[in-house]
Amino acid sequence: MSTAAVIGLGTMGAGIAAVLARSGMTVRGHDANAGAIEATRLKLPAIAGVLDDLGVPARGPACDIVLTGSLEEAVADADLVIENVPEEVDLKRAVLAEIAGLVSGNCVLASDTSGIPITRLQEGLPSPGRVVGMHWSNPPHIIPVVEVVAGDETSADTVEWMVATVRRLNLIPVRVKRDVPGFVENRILYAVMREALDLVERGVVDAEDLDTCVSWGIGYKLAVVGPMSLLDMAGLDIYGSVAGYLNRDLCSRGDVSPWAAEKIAAGRLGLKTGEGIYAYDQDEAASLGAARARRLVAVRRALEEAGEGEP
How many helices (DSSP H) and strands (DSSP E) are in the chain? Predict the structure, then answer.
């Protein structure tokens, strides 16, 4: 594989493109929004610095990322195209169908959807066997896990190719064996978010203390001991005893938390609007992303040096 394209730059496009380029590939990025292209251009130097801090080697000759408003130019001669447009089924299917008409029959079409089943996205496409999920975590140039998801019609060869590609990028592939909504990472994350919002909404704990509890409690522990290993470490008998009464009391709502829905309706969306669960002044919002990136880099390097994980 020598040429890759990222279609839809958004929040994660710059990081994905930078990781691909660092591996020595020719990389092109496309977005229909000229503002997204310019924002990506401005992000790339800082992302390159983060990859340097992580010690990610530059393989082969230096490779500039070409950013273009032309979809045809972006996917020309591509071996891999990663669809990264907003989470709307019809939009993603339309974009994938357009891409399929522009690339060779050997080009792998990957979707970075956060949870739309790949089976739904590959319906009606020519050669659906080459369509596969490639779900990156945000920020994609720091978090090393990539979920590889096969739809009902994805070929075994495509899955194996994608797993090998993720490894060549110095990342950790996770095979998702069944194409369920949300895959694995987001199903677990949203279960945590549901309980967290419920606890804050019911006044059990303040938002700040909840974040402290998760970050320095279970989050700190889970970075080293995964949930399945944690069950063995604690003892399945202990789990059985606690789960026997606690599971009945956990939040099981099937809709969006009213507390969060009220903020959404009022346009209080978080960092992007200056207020969400917390309020942010302009200077804080500008520096918060860089500060969190530094911490994530430090944690990843510490885990790698301790021998945890694969990179």
Answer: 13, 8
